[in-house]
Amino acid sequence: MKIMISASEAMEKGVWNDILRLFGRDKDEDFWPKEEFILTEEQALTLKLIKK
C-alpha cells in the first residue's frame, strides 16, 4: 500500500522534518503546500500516520 501526504498535511501532523529526511530534501528548498510525497506503508507506520 502507498500513502500520499502533501507538504501542508505533513506540517500540520508534525512530521515535516521526517518527510524531508526520508526524501533527502533540504529544509531551505521552496515547497508548494500541495506538493505530494508517496510513502510506503512501513514509512507511514514509522511516522505514526496510520495504525496496523
Care to describe what's here?
Helix content is about 35%, strand content about 20%. It has about 50 residues and is α+β, with helices and mostly antiparallel strands. The protein has a two-stranded antiparallel ribbon. About 10% of the residues are buried.
Secondary-structure topology with pairs:
Layout: E1 2-6, H1 7-12, H2 16-22, E2 36-40, H3 41-46
Antiparallel strand pairs: 1-2
Which short descriptors sum up this protein?
alpha+beta; 19% strand; 52 residues; 2 strands; 37% helix; two-stranded antiparallel ribbon; 3 helices
Count of DSSP-assigned helices: 3
The mean pLDDT is 96
Over all CA atoms, what is the radius of gyration? 10 Å
The largest sheet has its strands arranged as: 1-2
Overall SS class: alpha+beta
Q: What sequence of helices (H) and strands (E) makes up the elements? A: EHHEH
List low-confidence stretches. Answer: none
